[in-house]
Design goal:
The chain is α/β, with parallel strands linked by helices and about 220 residues long.
């Protein structure tokens, strides 16, 4: 059973707990985001991945170009620890991080959260890969992934007690689209997954298949 099967099951299990008027707001915001063409603006296969240097949960700084000097990078963007779909996705990636490492790849996860929140994610889920803080979403914006919540949806999240103002370091409205990139050592994006639907994520099996393709010599 794949990650997206688990995500759909979790989504279905939650619907009865959310008031109908709130579901309508969330569904409307999702439709508007999908219709905005935001996913089409994001970087995709064949594009050059912008370099970045972001703070890690352990207090260090991680630079993409430094990682690429050693091998390919799997770069995934998630919304934050407050998002249960993100937590499911991070745990699924953790289950496959060894397989990615065997293929010479480094897994890196990026969210707009402050470093303390990233550290909490690492500790809660026993993550062994880099979890970075993109406060203000400058890196997500470079990749074409950053968008602003609607007023209605921001109020819904406030009502859920998510406190995005605090966890995102004063940038409560801006989030990244769920996205995962496989980046070759030359900095070229070799595989991409970008979605406006936060309940859908890249399947680990597809990521691994993309890494395998990197190791196939060109004709």
């Amino acid at each position: 059973m794949g990650l997206n099967t688990d995500l759909r099951a979790f989504y279905a299990s939650r619907q009865s707990d959310i008031p109908e008027h709130v579901r309508e707001i969330m569904d409307r915001a999702g439709r508007e985001l999908a219709e905005s063409g935001q996913a089409d603006k994001a970087l995709n296969t064949g594009d050059t991945a912008p370099d970045f240097a972001l703070p890690a949960a352990d207090g260090g700084t991680v630079r993409l170009s430094s990682l690429l000097a050693s091998g390919p990078v799997v770069l995934t963007f998630y919304r934050g620890a407050w998002c249960p779909y993100c937590n499911l996705a991070l745990r699924a990636l953790q289950q496959h991080v060894g397989t990615m490492t065997e293929r010479g790849a480094r897994l890196v996860a990026v969210s707009p959260q402050i470093a303390d929140e990233s550290l909490s994610v690492v500790q809660k889920h026993d993550l062994t890969f880099d979890v970075l803080s993109d406060v203000g979403s400058a890196t997500a914006r470079q990749y074409g992934l950053a968008f602003d919540l609607t007023d209605e949806l921001a109020s819904v999240y406030d009502g859920f007690g998510m406190d995005l103002q605090r966890v995102n370091g004063g940038h409560a409205r801006t989030l990244p689209l769920p996205a995962t990139y496989v980046i070759g050592r030359d900095g070229t994006i070799r595989w991409a997954f970008v979605a406006t639907d936060y309940t859908t994520r890249a399947e680990p099996a597809d990521i691994i298949a993309a890494l395998d393709q990197l190791n196939i010599p060109s004709a």
